[in-house]
Amino acid sequence: MTKKRGDDQYGYDPEGAAARTLLDRLEQRAEQRPDKPARKLGDVLKLPKITPTTKRLIEAKAAIIDGPADDIAFSHSVLCQTSLPYRPTDERVWIRDQGQVSLLIEAGRARHPDTGKWVELPLPHGEKPRLVMLHLNSEAKRTGSPIIDVEGSMTAFVRSLGIHAHGRNIRTLRDQVARLAAAHITLGIGSKTIKTDVIDAFDLWWPDDAKQRTMWPSTVQLAPRYFDSLMEHAVPLDSRAVAALAHSALDLDIYAWLAQRLHRIPNGKPQTITWQAIKSQFGPDYDRLRKFREKFVPALKAVLTVYPSARIEIVDAGLMLWNSPPPILKKLVSVPRLSPLTIDTTATEIPDV
Predict the structure, then answer these.
(1) Could you tell me the pTM of the whole model?
(2) N or C: lower Cβ tally within 10 Å for the chain?
(3) Could you please report the per-residue DSSP string of 71-88?
(4) What whole-number distance in Å separates Cα of residue 340 and Cα of residue 323?
(5) Distance separating alpha carbons of residues 212 and 122, to the nearest angstrom
(6) In the predicted structure, residue 200 carries a pLDDT above the cut 90
């Protein structure tokens, strides 16, 4: 008997009748099934969707790994260890203590230019005032002047963060700037108490349309004592990381905290921060520790994406921090209108627990 092509002694016939029968059945099913749009490859492979936020984080990480930052943002060391409110609050006084530093903010008032009456403004909250503070600090360091033109530079700053400089975003931003401008702030550093407003003087602009009357400082002047303290205790941050984290107040706070903390840990002597201590700093409003951890851990992972040199382990007790280089290494920074200024990351050190 002549062996047919594709047959073998075990009756395996991949190119024969069995395969043709299966193919015929598949074709019949295909003809009976209604037409459906082709599924995307990501859906077929069940890949996670890339959100705009995730895309910003990935792109920022690639840029940070590729080379040093062209632009440097600055935060005050006290604000790296404490925080502004995360959510709207009816409280008029906000106090946050961390180790040997303390932040006290009192909600202020602003005089309405049309009615002459004093208007009570709430405390600033969320990511917007944090971005505003970073912007004001950075402009003050860049120019060497406490007087900052917000009306022009703020729009450019907002756009650089990928935030649309119009509509609801800009109204919210204006409102938060006004709250910051009116607030009274006291900084506690060890045994020293610095009573100062962050913003010493500002102009308010009120549109003619009453429905759009949102206070907006066109220029701000940092208070002398805050300006002097900032020059001494400024913590340099990577602007690319700030832009990638601009959507979240918590992310910004974690990044600033790690930026001033990790490089001060002794080599070979990691420090463990308990979950309870982390909650007291970043989540005092949470009733349950488990709920706070569910919020904090994803935020930390987002921060580590744009701080790739950070050495951190998540352990049962909390976080184990290892000595890591700061986001901006000690380097010579040229500041316009001033002689070159050496930014020494150790000069920002304030003892904490």
Answers:
(1) 0.77
(2) N
(3) SEEEEEHHHHHS---SS-
(4) 28
(5) 18
(6) no
